[in-house]
Design goal:
The chain is α/β, with parallel strands linked by helices. 31% of the residues lie in helices and 29% in strands. The structure holds flavin-adenine dinucleotide.
Length: 341
């Protein structure tokens, strides 16, 4: 069989990292990325890019932990290399604070991040409205630079990238052997997945270079995440809202909530407002499917539905998707050698 042709649909963090894992694992494949939008116009560009997992209720915790660990290890190595600033990856320390002590004092990811510990009484004095907190160091991706870095690596390995809206995965059957669906919220229309829904998120990106520590309220609704150049202030979680227009009332509310945690933010400048739709599901859809029409088959691997935590687990899910692509290639090679006999 000639070099298998693989199309990856989608150029957010999931599509680009999946394409990279496929070429790294199966260098003889010819991989193409097809997407109607590239950076800076994807949901992944809006994200804060913090490595703090979101919990998927329909996925076993040990699987989620494995995905997070693989992602953390991968990005930690980048943060510790000469590539770190170009890739937009850096370590950041800070606090997660709670009004009341949570039921689960040790989240499943506490031994993956660095130096996880309860906050001291002295640290808690910074947050008079909160009674309990956790201090740790994690990684943050500055999202547009990280996406560009992934694109650059893909181009260097010969991966082609084309702007194309795919109306139906079947339209790719005559050009590709395997199609990988990383369309994010676009999968709602592309494959008619009714279990996938948007959770709208509005954030502010501000200039406040004196803010060096992250601060996150335990429910994940209010957060301050310093990046290399800008600080992300959040946020909102609006289930089933498809609106991409910023709401001025919400902007003021986010700013006020963040200033009550970190009063120095009153001096922040150059406020930009961004909105993104988290591609949410009970569990990430990471599985193979065989499409077939009139006796012709197309092998598909789905990798979408990462909701509020795509950056935190992207490398782990990309590795698993690449493994499924490998199984598809083995099946194709098996059937082509049987056909020759
Ligand atoms: P996307 O980035 O949306 O990419 C989908 C791609 O598919 C796009 O390129 C799109 O153009 C393409 N596409 C769609 N349909 C088609 C089609 N029919 N044909 C061709 N191409 C198509 N996660 C974290 O881990 N940490 C955080 O701190 C964090 N903060 C966030 C803050 C906000 C405000 C939001 C909105 C999200 C945040 N997330 C965070 C979640 C994270 O952004 C998502 O989980 C992640 O970006 C999903 O990536 P994706 O590649 O699946 O989707």
């Amino acid at each position: 069989m000639a070099a298998p042709k693989v199309a990856v649909v989608g150029a957010g963090v999931i599509g680009l990292s999946t394409a990279l894992c496929i070429v790294e694992t199966y260098p003889s494949c010819s991989v193409t990325v097809l997407s109607d939008q590239f950076s800076p116009n994807t949901t992944s560009d809006v994200a804060a890019g913090m490595l703090i997992p979101h919990t998927y209720p329909g996925t076993p915790i040990h699987t989620q932990k494995q995905w997070f660990k693989e992602t953390f290890t991968y990005l930690f190595a980048i943060s510790n290399s000469a590539e770190a600033s170009e890739a937009g990856i850096h370590l950041v320390s800070g606090w997660q604070v709670f009004k009341n002590t949570p039921k689960e004092e040790l989240p499943f990811w506490s031994d993956v991040v660095l130096g996880f510990r309860p906050m001291s009484e002295a640290e808690l004095q910074k947050f008079p409205q909160h009674q309990f907190g956790q201090a740790f160091t994690t990684l943050k991706c500055d999202c547009p630079p990280y996406l560009l870095w992934l694109e650059k690596r893909l181009k260097a390995t010969g991966v082609q990238m084309y702007t194309r809206k795919v109306a139906d995965l079947w339209e790719l059957h005559s050009e590709y052997n395997v199609v990988v669906n990383c369309a994010g919220i676009g999968a709602h229309q592309l494959v008619g997945d009714e279990k996938l829904f948007p959770v709208r998120g509005q954030v502010l990106k501000v200039h406040a270079p004196w803010v060096k520590n992250f601060i996150r309220v335990g429910d994940g609704l209010t957060y301050i995440y310093p990046g290399i150049h800008r600080v992300t202030l959040g946020g909102t979680r609006e289930r089933e809202s498809w609106s991409l227009s910023p709401d001025p009332g919400t902007t003021k509310d986010i700013f006020d909530r963040c200033c009550s945690l970190e009063p120095s933010l009153r001096g922040a400048q150059d406020i930009e407002v961004k909105v993104g739709l988290r591609p949410s599901r009970q569990c990430v859809r990471l599985q193979k499917e065989v499409l077939s029409q009139g006796g012709v088959k197309l092998l598909v691997v789905h990798n979408y539905g990462h909701g509020a935590g795509g950056f935190s687990v992207h490398r782990g899910t990309a590795k698993e998707a690449a493994h499924l692509v490998g199984e598809c290639i083995a099946a194709l090679q098996g059937s082509s050698s049987r056909a020759k006999l």
